[in-house]
């Protein structure tokens, strides 16, 4: 054919500035789009061959990407379907007419084992984000002459016959001056690894295949071993520890969804990362921000989700609101809950051994998702200070006989720091009370949530008050102190306590003579403020506490019998400071034994 000139058919004036500046948020996307188009063309020829509509040799189907720094070009080559001159006019010159959609419509009744990626017909024009001129050299698999298409980024193009012997398409980008960073091989390799690491056709760059076209999430779980899952995890996160376990997603109705989600080991000081799960569409990387697809509490997981049914905007850069997103979100939550329930039921001991990491996911889920709680309550665990594990119902049964207050509320005593609160834990055990450990960063929120979920159950930290007040059975102990003696004791400690409350209580004689406790509501408020990033608001506020004096302690009796006000004040200060030390409110480490010895010596 002779050289032909014409105008590209578009429905929006000045489409190229829109593509370059607004359609795509990141100019590196051009390579994802062009390589994806090459994958489409390759998948199409494979599909036609499988249908008997192409009987030629498929040959080497690798997609090749090459950079010529001297010529200032980037070339993407495939041996796919190719195009005739008429197809070039149809699919290239008419912007937003998608060849992939046209192909799928034509062969819609055929099983799709080689899915087509392209959806919008605009991907090719992303080339003009970095190129001042683009050439297409293409030869159709059908008996048609090879053609060259040339456009400098205006609406004018040129198309002519060329000599090309092999089937397929070469896209040649003449890189603009402001985009010469893409002539660096390292830059191109980084983009290919980011977006094309798992594309379903081999991608060759610098004479090496740089992708894994058959990742484990497209395989049947029955064909995989534990080693395969761990190896893939290492491929995704080379520096990470081995995961605890994983969930293989494989859904084909009412939406298509595949993937593998891993439970990583989580440290107590974890940061909420929203980049642990990668989202793909037909093995093309889309984003690692999956907040609309995966529930917030499961964004702590790692792994891959792949779905062609996830609605993307036209540049495939972000998700759009859609009913399928909610369905996928709900399905993932259900699959995770089912997996945890299965692990708990099949091997409870192994589940308990992983609880320190699993517990964070479960608690986060319970805090943020009511439906998850409905599923999780059967495998949620409380761990006590004896390292025994109980479901909420098991634990309620265990403690309700001794830890039920006068209003028939079951009181769950807990410690947030078993070492620091050791003296209080020992006091609880003397009364045969049980204490659970709640020292996760999420536990302030978790406690509030559980009090709403569990009927007539209240959580109280073991050092939140005297035990007789924490588990208030409505009984009063007889005080050995008279009113004047109480006033005298209160006077001695009031000056030391400052604005804090001094409580003179009739406690068992062998309880500590002086204790520092913090009201539950105040401590929870401070803990939750820290968790919500509002610690600075609390910075100027003094630490509020109650100073509990055991009026029945022989040590307090001894103090009252001392002669000389100065001596009594010195003695009271020692008791007060020791109580502060035992709570870590003065410098010092584990001082429980030291405090106990000192109290004995003072007695």
From TrEMBL:
Family: Belongs to the heat shock protein 90 family.
Record-linked NCBIfam families: PRK05218.1 (NF003555)
GO molecular function: ATP binding; ATP hydrolysis activity; ATP-dependent protein folding chaperone; unfolded protein binding
UniProt cross-references to InterPro entries, sorted A to Z: HATPase_C_sf, HSP90_C, Hsp90_fam, Hsp90_N, Ribosomal_Su5_D2-typ_SF
Protein name: Chaperone protein HtpG
Entry keyword annotation includes Chloroplast: no
Classification via Pfam families: HATPase_c_3, HSP90
Organism of derivation: Arcticibacterium luteifluviistationis
Keywords: ATP-binding, Chaperone, Cytoplasm, Nucleotide-binding, Stress response
């Amino acid at each position: 054919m002779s050289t032909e000139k014409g105008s590209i058919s578009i429905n929006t004036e000045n489409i190229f500035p829109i593509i370059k500046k607004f359609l795509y948020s990141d100019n590196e996307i051009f390579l994802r789009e062009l390589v994806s188009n090459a994958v489409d063309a390759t998948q199409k020829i494979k599909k036609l061959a499988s249908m008997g509509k192409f009987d030629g040799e498929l040959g080497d189907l690798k997609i090749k990407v090459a950079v010529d720094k001297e010529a200032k070009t980037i070339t993407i080559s495939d041996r796919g379907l190719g195009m005739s001159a008429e197809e070039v006019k149809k699919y290239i010159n008419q912007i937003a007419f998608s060849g992939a959609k046209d192909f799928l419509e034509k062969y819609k009744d055929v099983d799709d084992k080689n899915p087509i990626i392209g959806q919008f017909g605009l991907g090719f024009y992303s080339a003009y984000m970095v190129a001042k001129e683009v050439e297409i050299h293409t030869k159709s698999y059908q008996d048609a002459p090879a053609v060259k298409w040339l456009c400098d980024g205006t609406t004018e193009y040129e198309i002519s016959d060329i000599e090309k012997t092999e089937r397929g398409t070469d896209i040649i980008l003449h890189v603009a001056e402001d985009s010469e960073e893409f002539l660096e091989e390292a830059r191109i390799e980084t983009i290919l690894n980011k977006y094309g690491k798992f594309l379903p056709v081999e991608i060759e760059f610098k004479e090496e295949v740089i992708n894994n076209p058959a990742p484990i999430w497209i395989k049947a779980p029955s064909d995989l071993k534990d080693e395969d899952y761990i190896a893939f995890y290492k491929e995704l996160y080379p520096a990470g520890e081995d995961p605890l376990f994983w969930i293989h997603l494989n859904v084909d109705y009412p939406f298509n969804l595949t993937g593998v989600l891993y439970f990583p080991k989580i440290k107590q000081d974890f940061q909420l990362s929203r980049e642990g799960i990668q989202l793909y569409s037909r093995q093309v990387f889309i984003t690692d921000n999956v907040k609309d697809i995966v529930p917030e509490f499961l964004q702590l997981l790692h792994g891959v989700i792949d779905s062609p049914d996830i609605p993307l905007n036209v540049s495939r850069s972000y998700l759009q609101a859609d009913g399928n997103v909610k369905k996928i979100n709900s399905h993932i939550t259900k699959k995770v809950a089912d997996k945890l329930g299965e692990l708990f039921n099949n091997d409870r001991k192994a589940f308990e051994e992983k609880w320190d990491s699993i517990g964070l996911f479960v608690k986060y889920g319970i805090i943020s998702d009511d439906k998850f709680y409905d599923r999780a309550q059967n495998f949620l665990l409380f761990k006590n200070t004896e390292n025994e594990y109980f479901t909420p119902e098991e634990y309620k049964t265990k403690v309700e006989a001794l830890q039920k207050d006068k209003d028939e509320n079951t009181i769950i005593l807990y410690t947030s720091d078993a070492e620091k609160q050791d003296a209080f834990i020992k006091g609880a055990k003397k009364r045969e009370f049980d204490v659970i450990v709640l020292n996760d960063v999420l536990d302030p929120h978790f406690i509030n949530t559980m009090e709403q979920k569990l009927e007539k159950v209240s959580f109280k930290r073991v050092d939140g008050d005297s035990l007789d007040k924490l588990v208030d059975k409505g009984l009063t102990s007889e005080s050995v102190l008279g009113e004047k003696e109480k006033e005298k004791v209160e006077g001695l400690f009031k000056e030391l306590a400052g604005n804090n409350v001094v409580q003179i209580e009739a406690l068992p004689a062998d309880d500590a003579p002086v204790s520092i406790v913090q009201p539950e509501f105040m401590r929870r408020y401070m803990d939750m403020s820290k968790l919500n990033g509002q610690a600075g608001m609390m910075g100027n506020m003094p630490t509020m506490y109650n100073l509990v004096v055991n009026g029945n302690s022989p040590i307090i009796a001894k103090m009252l019998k001392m002669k000389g006000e100065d001596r009594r004040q010195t003695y009271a200060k020692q008791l007060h400071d020791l109580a502060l030390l035992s709570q870590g409110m003065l410098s010092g480490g584990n001082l429980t034994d030291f405090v106990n010895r000192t109290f004995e010596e003072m007695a």
